[in-house]
Structure formats: C-alpha cells, structure tokens
C-alpha cells in the first residue's frame, strides 16, 4: 500500500484550497454554456485526483456544476450534503457496499458538500469528475454560521467541515 507521501509525489498532488490535495488529470477542449448559466463558456468536463488525509478535510463548499466522486484507494470517506429545501444527508464513499458505502457518489449542482475520512482512516484517494467542467469562478466556500443557521440539524458535521 502506498504512503501519503508516495501518493502526493507520484501523482503530483498540490494542496487544494478546500482542503486535501489534488491534481487535475483531464480538461475537455470542448466548451459549453447551457442556457447562459455561466458568465463565460466552460469546459464540458474536468477530472482530478483528490486525496484526503487524517489532518485534512474537504471544507463545506458549493459548485454550480454536478460533481461525481470515484473511490480509488484507502479508507472510507464521510460526506455531508446540504439541500436547498433545508434537508441534509450523510453518505459514505468507499468499498463496503454491504454496509451502505458506495464507490461512486454524485453531488448535484448547487448542493453544499464537505467530506472527511471516517474516524481512524489513514487516507482516501478519490477521483472527482465535474460537468460542465470545474472553474474556480463557480466555487464558493461555506461560512459556518450561515450554514448552521440554515441546517441546524447538521451542526456537528458542519462544524467539523468548516474552518471559521
């Protein structure tokens, strides 16, 4: 099993602004702007490697595109989704399908999300595919107080997945 340092070095991972480490592996040359929803054209799709470690987490954020997580290697991940109707759900991304984990998870556009390793985990190597493709202009980090106010039943996980 590779170490965290092996993964960072061999996959050329860099710190991600939301937490964890990443490397873009694909950006489609073709562009789109469905319904003029974006301020400018976007790639039709992008993909990254994404690594979580015990001292990192994916901070609560929102995208204006759909995002698909793919589990590759390591330990399971807990992911929080906050929906516009005030509901929330916790999902697990991993390989123990019998226990309810899924090796692939879709986060629809405009759904708040954040993730961390399940307690005791050493690392998780994931892939993230975004369509239309990821652009930092379509990405916003969440503020703890604002999220807790809208989703009070998810306060503990929101607190764990925010830095303020």
What's the quick description here?
The protein is mostly beta strands and 164 residues long. The protein has helices spanning 4-10, 144-150, 155-160, and strands at 14-15, 21-27, 31-32, 42-43, 46-52, 58-63, 66-74, 77-82, 88-93, 104-107, 112-117, 124-131, 139-141.
Secondary-structure blueprint of this entry?
Elements: H1 4-10, E1 14-15, E2 21-27, E3 31-32, E4 42-43, E5 46-52, E6 58-63, E7 66-74, E8 77-82, E9 88-93, E10 104-107, E11 112-117, E12 124-131, E13 139-141, H2 144-150, H3 155-160
Antiparallel strand pairs: 1-2, 2-5, 3-4, 5-12, 6-11, 6-13, 7-10, 7-12, 8-9, 8-11
InterPro entries: Cupin_DUF985, RmlC-like_jellyroll, RmlC_Cupin_sf, YML079W-like
Protein name: DUF985 domain-containing protein
Pfam families: Cupin_5 (PF06172)
């Amino acid at each position: 099993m590779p170490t965290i340092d092996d993964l960072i070095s061999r996959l050329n991972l860099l710190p991600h602004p939301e937490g964890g480490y990443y490397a873009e592996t694909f950006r489609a040359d073709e562009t789109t702007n469905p319904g003029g929803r974006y301020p400018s054209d976007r790639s039709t799709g992008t993909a990254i490697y994404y690594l979580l470690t015990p001292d990192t987490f994916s901070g609560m954020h929102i995208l204006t595109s759909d995002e698909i997580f793919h589990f590759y290697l390591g330990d399971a991940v807990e992911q929080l989704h906050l929906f516009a109707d005030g509901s929330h759900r916790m999902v697990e991304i991993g390989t123990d399908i019998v226990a309810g984990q899924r090796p692939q998870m879709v986060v629809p556009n405009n759904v708040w999300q954040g993730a961390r390793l399940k307690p005791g985990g050493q690392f998780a190597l994931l892939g993230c595919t975004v369509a239309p493709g990821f652009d930092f202009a379509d990405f916003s980090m969440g503020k703890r107080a604002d999220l807790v106010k809208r989703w009070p039943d998810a306060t503990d996980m929101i607190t764990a997945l925010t830095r303020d």
